[in-house]
Predict the 3D structure of the following.
Amino acid sequence: MTKLRNYILANLSSIFFSIFLSLFAIASIVFLIKLSTYTAVMQINVWEMFKFYIFRVPELLFFTLPVTFFVASALTFFKLSNENEIIVLFSLGIKPAFLLQTLLKPALLLSAILFFNFFVIFPHSKVLSSNFVLYKKSEAQFNLSASEFGNSFGDWLLYLGKKNEDGSFSKVFLFNKKDKEEILIAAKNANLVNDSGVLRLKLYNGQGYSYSKEKFTQINFDSMVINDTMKTDLTVHLQPLEYWLDEKHRKYKQKMFITDLLLSLFPTISLFFIAAISIVHSRHQKSQIYLYLFLGVVVYYGATMGLQKVLGLYTIPVVIIIWVLATYMLYRKKVLRRF
């Protein structure tokens, strides 16, 4: 029995990895195309693009692994059926339940991995990905251009006369108009420094003028530093349980929890359906396995997404119970009565 079980799992693994690599490559390409839209509002180098991709890998794995296992398992049984190997097994007295038990362990392992992925890893990767985009967008707001009006530095209007080869600027002017006071600062040179989200404008050799109805003041300085903190509104990092229980974006999290939990369970609770559509007698039965695979994914995913607005969290037990009962009845009709 152990050799037979290993033989079935070997067939499953070869089909599984061939399908998974194809789906994962397609999903990665789609993500990279989507990522290119961010370059319109922020600058990303190759290393930063790779980091952003790594942040989204848990999400890519989550939407490829359940479908891959579902399709690979069905195609494994179908292959063994076409080669009459399953018919030989049944002739030797091996029950269909043995085939389901063989798939049960990898299905449970995959469901556990998917649950850990969405419940523990996904909140971390989501925060990292979101903060990365927010930070890069905020950083892009300070790509200042020389000899152009319209630059701003916090509450200051900023004009940069010329950009030097070393990255510094010359002939720098800042203007700030308040309710009762106007301030003008002129400097011969300036450096722009981004220090972990705090933008510093270092001015050298200049004068500052302050004007109001009551007084006019002037100062001369050798150096001056003006700070401006980027307004990124970064997401606060929470522990996984705190993330799911937090009331912020409650509807979005509930929807994601329902969807991800049901997708995590999809490989395990679909074993009856896999057996029903893939175990056939090649001489007497015509298989429409690819149609059934398509309909199975569409019906399960459609029920998962569609019932949430009506049933809320009750979608989880309703979908599980109906899916298991319906697929078991199909399994009894297609497999148990014939083999």
Remarks:
- The chain has a mean pLDDT of 81.
- The chain has ten helices and six strands.
